[in-house]
Amino acid sequence: MYQGIMEGLLTRCRTLSALATCSLRHSRCIVRKCYHCAPGRGQRLVVSRMFQPQNLREDQVLSLEGRASDLTCKSQRLMLQVGLILPASPGCYHLMPYTVRAVEKLVRVIDQEMQAIGGQKINMPSLSPAELWRATGRWDLMGRELLRLKDRHGKEYCLGPTHEEAVTALVASQKKLSYKQLPLLLYQVTRKFRDEPRPRFGLLRGREFYMKDMYTFDSSSEAAQETYSLVCDAYCRLFDRLGLRWMKARADVGSIGGTMSHEFQLPVDIGEDRLVVCPSCHFSANTEIVDLSQKICPDCQGPLTETKGIEVGHTFYLGTKYSSIFNAHFTNAHGESLLAEMGCYGLGVTRILAAAIEVLSTEDCIRWPSLLAPYQVCIIPPKKGSKEAAATEIVERLYDDVTEALPQLRGEVLLDDRTHLTIGNRLKDANKLGYPFVIIASKRALEDPAHFEVWSQNTESRASCPSPLRSPELQSRAAESQEPGCC
Amino acid sequence: MYQGIMEGLLTRCRTLSALATCSLRHSRCIVRKCYHCAPGRGQRLVVSRMFQPQNLREDQVLSLEGRASDLTCKSQRLMLQVGLILPASPGCYHLMPYTVRAVEKLVRVIDQEMQAIGGQKINMPSLSPAELWRATGRWDLMGRELLRLKDRHGKEYCLGPTHEEAVTALVASQKKLSYKQLPLLLYQVTRKFRDEPRPRFGLLRGREFYMKDMYTFDSSSEAAQETYSLVCDAYCRLFDRLGLRWMKARADVGSIGGTMSHEFQLPVDIGEDRLVVCPSCHFSANTEIVDLSQKICPDCQGPLTETKGIEVGHTFYLGTKYSSIFNAHFTNAHGESLLAEMGCYGLGVTRILAAAIEVLSTEDCIRWPSLLAPYQVCIIPPKKGSKEAAATEIVERLYDDVTEALPQLRGEVLLDDRTHLTIGNRLKDANKLGYPFVIIASKRALEDPAHFEVWSQNTESRASCPSPLRSPELQSRAAESQEPGCC
């Protein structure tokens, strides 16, 4: 029925398919055998079965508003209200199913960008032996931010907040590292732990959080600085792909150390970092490293303006600070053993997600970067017993047609089967949850041909179409999701 | 050139594509801009650039053999020898790039099976407040297996070895849980911590490891037992898809509790569990729960035989043990509030990987479940300066052709560019690492048409083909990778 248009979309939607958290290609078949599912509905994802977010029309929002004093920023309030996160202990949250989907999509985009520049993914333990941290002096320097524990034999560990020590010791243990293998870019995406004095803002400043940390090893200072630029460029591409406005600001090296550092910041009032920006030459820096009495750009001597930001990435050129302590050597072309020049590069994974919600959402409604939305489409069938109820079957067929013809949308389309609620009420929920597309079967669904309303929530536009796939918005979303310059 | 056959393979290889850890669809374009890569080679994955496993021809294997006394099982020895894992502290390992790829593929298969039965993926913190564990009495009961710590305010936590307490408290906090949402199947794949008295066998018994833990909530004991069967069936499908011989044995409930429990075991001599099996009626049980003086099957009274196994999965029917402590209620059709009936279900993710290597490998060579092999194909071009060196370009074109025509193999094909080594030496390395397919350009690569040798390492067969994609083995691998009954 919509085959032609669907095929067109199909060839354009490669990104979506690359990001689908679980393709469900197999599941579609297995589900049919599952006794839990009513016959014929096995392959449809329905809102009523979702654990969270769920019954927004009920008392949940009210009960949360009752303790609004705890909620110090918009993303935290919205994410708690709709049940994207649930508090476990101070600074620690349960991530609920929608959030896990969004985080997994973000990790997939990060993997693509890190592997595109030659990054190799590893996984280092959270339990980090004290002796490593004593070797660098950070066992004392990190103070109470380190969560420390002893095992049954009394041996001391911390829960790794970052892994310079571990990765440098790991590379140092490889006695045959050759200059031919450099630059070596190792990264991981794992939980990190930091005993924040005041955890707050939900996922923005937690005690347990997901971070992507990359560590690079180079044969010379010049090569290391090229690698530094390479990783920074990958970070720029990442934030561009997420559709986020970002700034790259010069920053303090803090407890990580090294000689050069930049922060990637999303400009927003709730941000805890103060930045100065030069509108003429694009100089930008954290106020930590600027003489604020002057307010003059060091590059062009123009006046600086001030803004606030959420730090979502941080890069450090480390030189040989860590490699000299752990003896991380490589062999050069002449057979000489030299210390590797290092860099380290962090992205706050759960923080990027919360920060994106903070900057994109309205006061009442969540908006996601299109690439990260947990589900791309929500289809709302008519209310049970209403005049339009006859269109229910057409809508369910639409669900099947869309997911059949557009494999990249499999697992990405939800049916809001709470048909005891009006379309209007369910549309409000869908609006709050921020599905990029909502398809509604209103009166015109009973016309011949059936017309559907397609709401594009990110652009706040809607269209009535004989097939939702003729919606210009849905088509342009598909086009958007394709990387510029990508085949 | 191979277009026709490639197209055929393409339609059959859906599983591979669904499992690719990072599709590299984007990267292919971005990489070309990357200064690290020589022109024209940007999109080729080459062995010389891999951090680990790497130069096996060098002294690494020898140095490890020197301390063979520490290596207590085959999988640990092999994984250390080739650099798949590196020790970080007792029972804690760094997972190197090949291992991370295999683990991510395994998680993808697990996600498919769990979501096919309606599982919803969540993510709970590792920091688990002591009060939850005190409520169930397990703060004391778990003894020294719990890793405990205090935060800066003196509040006590453990590092979660399992999450019955956390998930039950989470579900109990949802006051509007309706019978319509049941069965509720929540699962996560996260790091778990257990302070083993004697960590050993590499990833088989570690102190920090990845586990999939699912928790189910049902409206009645009967429904809960149906859910129990449903999850067990999903586990059977999982192990079948991995090509592993498994046993489902009745087991003790241990510190988890409940009234019924089964272990999924891979039979192998190194296994730490002793099992009794009835050859006639397929009864199987851990010796913990059997009266060994009798050696008679309780189901058919036949004689029992004994075997050893590695526990890779464990299921528990919990009843209301946890829901009654945390008041995890749901509302039934009559508006009454009732306690949920629970089950919990674990899969040792990193343990499954190591156990599979333990049972599938030879003494000297790693073999992977086909679905989990880090890379599917290794292509070995001729030695530099050899008679066959003229075929180098043909081989490199082959790499490009294969990854171009078979998108599901993108990111799955490696070129062993260490052309200072003979083909024979590199073939030995490839054999040790267990790539399912190795393609070699030997003398006949210079014939017209060029012939390649295709080694299928899992079946120990080889063929010489005008195109490697005409290899019957490679084709049947592609067919194998397709799920039976899957469209």
Automatic annotation (TrEMBL), chains A, B:
Enzyme superclass (EC): ligase
EC identifiers of the protein: 6.1.1.15
Keywords in alphabetical order: Aminoacyl-tRNA synthetase, ATP-binding, Ligase, Nucleotide-binding, Protein biosynthesis
Catalytic reactions on record: tRNA(Pro) + L-proline + ATP = L-prolyl-tRNA(Pro) + AMP + diphosphate
Domain Aminoacyl-transfer RNA synthetases class-II family profile, first and last residues per copy: 104-374
Pfam families: HGTP_anticodon (PF03129), tRNA-synt_2b (PF00587)
InterPro entries: aa-tRNA-synt_IIb, aa-tRNA-synth_II, aa-tRNA-synth_II/BPL/LPL, Anticodon-bd, Anticodon-bd_dom_sf, Pro-tRNA-ligase_IIa, Pro-tRNA_synthetase, ProRS_core_prok
Classification via PROSITE patterns: AA_TRNA_LIGASE_II (PS50862)
Region annotation Disordered: where it falls in the sequence: 457-487
Name the record gives this protein: proline--tRNA ligase
Organism, scientific name: Rattus norvegicus (Rat)
The encoding gene: Pars2
